[in-house]
Amino acid sequence: LSEPNGTASLSVKARDTSGNEATTSAVSVTVYNGGVASYEPYYKVPRCGYAGSVCDSGNLLVGRGTLGPEANRPNTLYGSCTDGTAGNFHQSESIDKLVISSVDGGPITMGKAIRIEATVWASSQYYQDRLELYFDRYPNSTGRSWTSIATLSASGPGAQTLSTTYTLPAATTSSSSDLVIRAQFSPVTITEGVCNSSVERDVDDLAFMARGY
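User: That's the sequence. What structure does it adopt?
Assistant: Structure tokens below.
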């Protein structure tokens, strides 16, 4: 992406063959890259506010906590789970990107399958590294109700993409719904839930919209 979502300044410079040049006054514009998430300060996570065919976290999740450039850390709903601080950037475990897309290529829709892709960085002891994926609707006034989707194993050290598919629950309304995927990557071989005790865990949420029909 050449320019992230958000407000940017735009100006035009003109130059003739004699070397004369002039620049217009800057104007404020809003950049929206379709299918690319923007940080939502209320929910405290990256969010795609339109039910398109894809929702991509872009570069908002690169790193883990204070290790690496992760913006707006910890990037979990309402800051509900912080990242582990042990290790080093791109030597220890981290989630660098999450992408959600419709399997059929159409808009993401309740009752239809989505593909979840997580770009992760596995440690040299990658055989211990696990990616746990969860789903929930939000906001939820009675608290979180995470559904476990899958647990995936790293295939080697370093950068790699782990993926799975998941069928969204049926719609309860014809309007679009706010949904969230949580990814947890850590060297843990037992399931401890959506915010485990590992000092090397990286936990990130990606919120997205789905059509209700």
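The chain has a mean pLDDT of 87.
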